[in-house]
Task: inverse folding
């Protein structure tokens, strides 16, 4: 199988027929392919339309969720089902243009493992554009992301990118960042972005918050996944240092200013920091034990090829 197209669907009944028609006309020229629709608990007529499409086209696979589990879960299910050498996800809302797929494949042949679409001329509402810009700045700050538009669903991945890659939360938009941290080569091409003509956007401010916590996890996992004691130990020692400085300040104040040592709020804080610092270091040891158990049958690196 040359291509696997993965399309998460939630309440897009007005767009599915047009999407299928445009997509089929494009990819039929590109080799063997499959189209995987993942219905994420749609409450409109999307399921009926997808069943109708699937019955008339043997290239179409339909995955039906029992309820809505979110876009990340839908994409993960589609990726695990995909058999193609190249896997291409895209949105079902017609904002991604299927005609850009050949452009992604051409760029992929230049030696990249992932090619991400860049919606340079975005056709979104002001609120959605601002949220995306904030998220992009956070990704640049925390994980030094190099591509312009990680939130663009339209991307091309070599199949090996998804070996041992499980997605949770809102992590689908961070796949290129995760893969870059593993050593995969990431490219980017400008793609067409069309205004939504039917249906409603599923993007809200809560997704920005959830995505931020996923971003923090990626940052922590990249920096400390094989040495969590360094993170928790450093945090615990910092609390010890603050506690010692407070204690010294209070003793100096008692000797030269007040004339006696009182158990005031700052002294209580000093004792509390000693306790929490100790607990933080203990958490670090526990995390170290869990990480070593996690990596017992895994390795914390990625081999591109073995030459013999």
Result:
């Amino acid at each position: 199988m040359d291509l696997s197209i993965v399309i998460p669907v939630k309440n897009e009944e007005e767009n599915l027929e047009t999407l299928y028609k445009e997509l089929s006309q494009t990819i039929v020229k590109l080799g063997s392919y499959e189209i995987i629709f993942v219905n994420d608990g749609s409450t409109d007529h999307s399921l009926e339309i997808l069943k109708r499409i699937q019955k008339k086209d043997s290239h179409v696979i339909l995955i039906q969720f029992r309820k809505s589990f979110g876009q990340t879960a839908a994409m993960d299910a589609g990726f695990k089902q995909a058999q193609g050498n190249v896997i291409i996800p895209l949105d079902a809302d017609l904002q991604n243009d299927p005609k850009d797929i050949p452009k992604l494949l051409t760029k992929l042949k230049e030696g990249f493992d992932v090619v991400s679409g860049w919606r340079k001329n975005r056709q979104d509402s002001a609120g959605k554009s601002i949220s995306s810009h904030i998220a992009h700045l956070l990704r640049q700050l925390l994980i030094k992301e190099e591509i312009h538009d990680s939130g663009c669903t339209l991307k091309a991945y070599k199949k090996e990118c998804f070996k041992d890659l499980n997605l949770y939360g809102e992590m689908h938009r961070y796949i290129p960042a995760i893969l870059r941290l593993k050593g995969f080569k990431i490219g980017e091409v400008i793609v067409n972005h069309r205004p939504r003509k039917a249906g409603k956007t599923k993007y809200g401010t809560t997704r920005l918050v959830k995505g931020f916590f996923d971003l923090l996890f990626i940052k922590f996992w990249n920096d400390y996944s094989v040495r969590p004691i360094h993170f928790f130990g450093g945090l615990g020692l910092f609390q010890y240092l603050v506690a010692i400085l407070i204690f010294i300040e209070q003793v100096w104040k008692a000797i030269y200013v007040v004339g006696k040592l009182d158990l005031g709020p700052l002294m209580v804080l000093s004792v509390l920091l000693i306790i929490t610092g100790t607990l933080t270091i203990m958490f670090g040891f526990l995390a170290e034990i869990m990480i070593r158990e996690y990596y017992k049958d895994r390795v914390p690196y990625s081999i591109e090829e073995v030459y013999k």
Notes: The mean pLDDT is 84. The CA atoms of residues 228 and 290 lie 10 Å apart. The chain has nine helices and seven strands.
